[in-house]
Amino acid sequence: MEKDAENDKKCTLDTLLEDKSNVTYAGNEDLFLSIKGNILNSISSDTVEWRRSYSRPVKSVRLKVSFVPFSADNLFSCTHENLIKQPVFHVYINECADMDAYKLSLKDDIDSWLKVLNQHNIQDWMIVLVDTYDSKKASKIIPRTTVLDKIRNDFAIKHGDRCLSVLNPTKFESRSAESWRGFISRIQHFLLVAYDRQLINFQEIIREQRECRNKKNWSF
């Protein structure tokens, strides 16, 4: 009986890990789709440690996600009780090395995206600038303020680690390896933070429901 219980528990965990969580993408769709395969393969290639809250045991998990286009109609509040349907994480991806181009259009686009997330009290997001390495420009003096710096100053003063740049792996695979590993590690970390946040919110909903169990017509 004990062995059967352990097998049932393992099957349940394996089934849960097979389910793919929805992650939305916004920004430059063509750019994102060109590197989507690389992201999916890299995220699920290795197990990662999930250090959960409240001193719960550390688990090794393999993350599996499904990317869907960003849409305000498909968003739920972070306190919504349905953990399956709602997207767990949100990524904005674009490419822009010119400060004038950033001020002209990219800044407003990011601002509109973040406002929608804030309206739903969603904190789990990431902004990624994809760079294409240019050997002709590599030797030039790096500008004092980059587009990435401006994005952090404009939108993520307290959360600068949620904004980063990565070299395009489809253009310069050998040169992009290090920055790509950093990007994948960061997105894996934020995915687990998002999972943990949603589980904590779900537990709060369960506790609130439990406190109402003595009320007339209560139904769990």
> Strand portion, in percent?
15-25%
The number of distinct β-strands equals 7
Distance between the termini: 30 Å
Q: In DSSP terms, counting alpha (H) and pi (I) runs of 4 or more, how many helices? A: 6
Radius of gyration of CA atoms, rounded to a whole number: 20 Å
In spatial order, strands of the major sheet run 4-1-5-6-7
Main pleated-sheet profile:
5 strands, parallel
Description:
- This protein has a 5-stranded parallel beta sheet with strand order 4-1-5-6-7, sandwiched between helices. Strands 2-3 form a two-stranded antiparallel sheet.
- It starts with a helix and ends in a 9-residue tail after the last helix.
- By secondary structure, the protein is α/β, with parallel strands linked by helices.
- The protein is built from 6 helices and 7 strands.
- Strand 2 (48-50) and strand 3 form a beta hairpin.
- The protein has helices spanning 2-18, 29-44, 99-119, 135-138, 147-155, 173-211, and strands spanning 21-27, 48-50, 59-61, 65-69, 89-94, 125-131, 163-167.
- Helix 3 (99-119) runs parallel beside helix 5.
What is the strand and helix layout of this fold?
Blueprint: H1 2-18, E1 21-27, H2 29-44, E2 48-50, E3 59-61, E4 65-69, E5 89-94, H3 99-119, E6 125-131, H4 135-138, H5 147-155, E7 163-167, H6 173-211
Parallel strand pairs: 1-4, 1-5, 5-6, 6-7
Antiparallel strand pairs: 2-3
Helix pairs in contact: 3-5
